[in-house]
Fold this protein.
Amino acid sequence: MELVELTEVIVKELVEDKDSVTVKEFPSEEENTVTIQVMVPEDQMGKVIGKQGKLAKALRTIVQASSYVNDNKRVNINIDAY
């Protein structure tokens, strides 16, 4: 599974309105780095980040592990609200 798809599947399970989630990949200055931008509604940010950022950290860990198995690239996930 592609990293963006994996991120999108996980985040969509965390929020109430699955259609409101946007996940995109952006180029990075470093060649071995992938940057993924996650956009969710402002009222859903707490559900994606979790208490003390535990859900966000777990999301980053899962996607990073998948990257190491398949592409061996570093992954940066930015979570923002709109």
In short: The chain is about 40% helix and 25% strand. The two ends are 27 Å apart (CA to CA). The longest helix spans residues 54-70. The mean pLDDT is 94.
